[in-house]
Structure formats: C-alpha cells, structure tokens
Write a structure and sequence with these properties.
Length: about 70
Amino acid sequence: AVAAFHRLAEALQQCTELQKLDLSYNKIGDAGAARLAEGLQSCKQLETLRIGSNSMSPAAETSLNAVMDTS
C-alpha cells in the first residue's frame, strides 16, 4: 500500500491544477500519509482534501492538514 501512495505522490507533483481530492476509506496509514504530504506540496490549487477513515494517527492527519494550510 505504501508503494501505491509513493506513486500517487509522484503523480500529484504534476497536478498543479487539482482542486479536490477524496481519498477517504483507502487505508492510507501513517507511512502513506507521509508520502501523500510530499506530493501534495505541489498542489497549490487544492481546496478540498478528504482523508476520513484511513487508519492514520492524529500526527499524520496534522501533517496533511499542515500541507493544506500552506497551499
């Protein structure tokens, strides 16, 4: 699963116009969230990120929310 989020993170780096992303119920976990946070840094137009029900720690959720706050 982490490899899939690594590939997604790489793809997200090219998605500069992405505005909404729903990744709810995808079993992201903490390692996947870390990879996802890396990729989301390039998504400056992203307004909505849904990450509910993904077995992440509060720290991982905070990491993703911080990326949203800076984009």
